[in-house]
Amino acid sequence: MAYPRELLADHEQLILDLHPHWMYMAKHVAALVGSIVLGIVAIVALQDNAVGTIVRVVAIVLILSSLVWFVARLAKWVTTQLVLTTDRLIYRSGVFAKSGLEFPLERINTVFFNQSILERLLGAGDLRIESASEFGTQVFSEIKKPAAIQNQIYKQMETNETRRFTNMAQGAGLAPAGAAAPAPAPASIPEQIAQLSQLRDQGVITEADFQAKKADLLNRM
User: Fold this and answer.
1) H-type helices in 90-205, by residue range?
2) Distance from CA of residue 180 to its chain's centroid?
3) Averaged over 16-27, what is the pLDDT?
4) Confidence category of residue 171, pLDDT binned at 50, 70, 90
5) In this predicted model, which residue has the larger pLDDT, 88 or 220?
6) Distance (Å, rounded) from C-alpha 215 to C-alpha 84?
7) Are 161 and 167 in contact (CB under 8 A)?
8) Chain segment 79-114, per-residue pLDDT in tens
C-alpha cells in the first residue's frame, strides 16, 4: 500500500516509501511452514486410530492458528510504512485503527542505526530518531538498509535547511527574489530518477518500486 499522494503538500516530494524488512515476517512464516510440515507428517505417518485422529485434529488446529497469525502479521506489514519526503519523516501503522508519527526534518537532531551481525548480513536493523518534537526519541525496528536510510535522511535535512534559509533570506530582503540560490535547487526529474536508481542498487527500494516511481516522475515532464 503506497503512501497517499493527496497527503503531500503541493511543493512536497516523496523520497522513500518503505515497508519493514522481510525479517518482520520471519517467525510467522516459520511457524506456518512448521505447522504444515507437522500436519503432513501426522496425516501420512500416523495410523488411522483414535490417537492418530486426535493428533491430526490438533495438527489442523495448529495449521489454522498459524495461518491466522501469519495473515494478521502480513496485514500489519502491508500497513506499516516509513516515509521520507523533502519536508518530513513519517511512520504509519495499523490495519483498522491507524497510528502515526510525523517528524519535520528541521526538528530532527540525530539519526542512529543499529545492526546485529545477523541483521547486517540480511540488510536489516533498527533506526533511532532523536528530535526536538513532542515525540522525543523513537526507535523503528526491522528497517531495510538502515545505514542508507540514515544517509538519505541527512541529505534531505541538509537540502531542507538550505531551502528554508534561502526563503528566510529572500523574505528579509537579504537576497533578491530572482537571485540564484546559494545552494542547489530541488533536484530535477532526471536527478531524482538517478537518486532512485542509486537507492535501488543499494537495496533500499525494489525494482518494482523503482519502475513505479520512475513512471510517476516521467509523467510529470
Assistant:
1) 117-122, 146-171, 189-202
2) 35
3) 92
4) low
5) 88
6) 19
7) no
8) 999 999 999 999 988 877 778 888 899 889 999 999
Strand order in the sheet with 99-104: 14-18, 81-85, 88-93, 99-104
How far from 10 is each of 3, 5, 14, 71, 196, CA to CA, in Å?
Answer: 15, 10, 11, 36, 21
Measured between alpha carbons, how far is 136 from 45 in angstroms, rounded to an integer?
56
DSSP bridge partners of 84: 16, 89
Using DSSP bridges, classify how beta strands 99-104 and 88-93 pair: parallel, antiparallel or unpaired. antiparallel
Q: Is the pLDDT of residue 41 over 70?
A: yes
* Rounded distance between C-alpha atoms, residue 63 and residue 154, angstroms: 45
C-alpha grid cell, residue 19: 515497508
